Amino acid sequence: MKKIYYILDTDMKRYTTLLLHRFSTFQLQRPKFMESPTTKRSKMSDHEMNKPTQTSSNTTETREINTNYSYYDWHYNQPFYVDKTLLIKELLDTHHEYVLISAPPRFGKTLNMDMARRFLEIEIDEDGKAIELDVDENECCLKEVQTRSKNFKLFQGKKILEKKEFVFKHFGKYPTIHVNFSELVGHNFEEIFVQFKKILNKAFRQHAYLEKSSLWDRVGYNKKKFMKYFDPMKYASLDEHDVKYGLVNLAEFLHGHHGKRVYMFIDDLDVPIHTMIHQYLSINDKWRTIELLQHITGNLLREYKYIGRSLFNSTLKFSSLILQKASDISHYPFMHECMFPEFYGFEEAEVKYLLEKAGRLEDFNEIKEKYNGYNTTFCGSHIKLYNSWAIMNYLKTGNFDVYWPASILDKIKQTISHDKIRPKIAKIMSNQSCTVNYCCFPDTSDIETLSKILCRNEVDKHLDAEFFMQFLSEQGFFRSTLPYRTDLSLKIPNRTVYSVFDEVLGSIDSINKYYNHSTELIDKLTDSFEDLARLRNEEAVHALAESILALSESERTLKTKYELQSVLDAYMLQKFQHVSAKCSTSLRAKCDTILVIADLHVMFIIEYRSVWSPNDYDTHQEIPDRGYDTLAEEASLKKIFPEDTPTVKNRIYLQIMIGRFKKFIILYSFNNMKLSTVYKGEPN
């Protein structure tokens, strides 16, 4: 059996681990298979990583932070690595020097950033001198470069090395600064401020060679200023002015030492925004935090003589708020026109390539249903993408897992069942169009609103339904079909997201609260299914249609395919769990619900549809023509009920359609016999 390696975009997970560490009510465990040299090293405390050695009284020699290991190191040579190295060329070929890329969690943002950094950064030898790499087309020279450069080895056999002229010009040519905002979490501004001082210390210590640089012999360069950030015994005394100009100072020192402008990398730019949203900070602390970050990024990007290019990663468009004082930022949001669409997530051909390499190409259709469906556009053309973490997790575990932290899901689930949100999501889940206005310039008040909704559950008072839908879109819960600047036409991207919404909106408590159905109506519905299982005739189908029609005549009528399925699944589960029967929403493409009544040896296979014109009713042969396979059904049963698979002697196929004017159409087939049709409900 082939061993499958796990390749993971750690983008959202690193943020989550740090964020949830602050929330004592939640805990996120990192699976053992995700351990890497980077992971193990990151478990060291700040004190251990920066622990000073025994020194003389005149100098403070410290242990250098090892930057030779990175996320890209862990991935580049794995059997199921997907080559995205041409992104480096795209980034440098674009005339935009300051680029912000925002995409949903776990689409490869951190991995791509680290890949670009390892390609571009100047490497330093043991004496603190830049390694001169004369990369040219001479084979002997290339072998010498491979011997001297640890970074060059990471790109052997990759597409970027085919662009020889670009490699000769840019490989290993730039001083780089890499900082990660994932640690900027705290209960108040003071805690976040302390965390940023630690980030600055780590950034300076990545360039420990500067401590012995000849730079300090030149006029205008102050080593004491450098040591204030660099020395682990001194950085805690940094004041607000020092913090605001810390990255600028580091860029100035690197520019002076190397004589070249710096390439700046800032990952997880919006983690402080997530902190404000998911952990309640005072309004004053929010303002102070945002103002601090605006000054840091604004000061940094105004220093054109020090900073050559910059790349920022984020999930939310809110990150643009942090860059408000910086000019000339080119933002490429995932939901709109994107300059680099093929480099984030996996395209269909890449998924097939990975499955074929794993010897599991037959799984493609199932993966396509569960995980694909994210859209972005490039030059007016739609590009459909899969979540990269989800695909690699499936290759590793064989499970279709959701790709959001449990804490995020729990808070969102509290809101989506609200009366203002539920109808919109139900509409989208029924494959209908739902267009919301797009807020291009969110501000601090929007952050405060989301915080009150998600942290304090003040939904009724503060919820702006359309803005919240945009927030969900940026988190990856929807895809846009009309990526314009002023509105978003939303769709459910895949069955994984569908199952998240179905879990909430399909719960019995949520349904009863929303539809206010009586006990008598619920009993009538479930009894009609039991009667149909026993009698298996057209009269029993008519009775089922009557019971569904009765449910639709409540204060909130059943108007969509999703609402119909949600109600019927919930009520059938409530009833039949007491009679040794089970109901489950199937993730197979061929049906929506499997209901097994064990003591009657009957399995219902049910599809739900919404129909809006008489022509849509002409589907009498659709179920038989799909050719349901008895063996496939048995395999599906065992997958859903692994411990106690009931004996099934009879199969009842139902296609339940909901139309206008409270009209229900049921297409009915028993053991693949001739299909009959029942209509119930009359036009108003």
From TrEMBL:
AAA-ATPase-like domain boundaries: 78-309
Region (Disordered): 35-62
Pfam families linked to this entry: AAA-ATPase_like
Name the record gives this protein: AAA-ATPase-like domain-containing protein
UniProt biased composition (Polar residues): 51-62
InterPro entries: AAA-ATPase-like_dom (IPR018631)
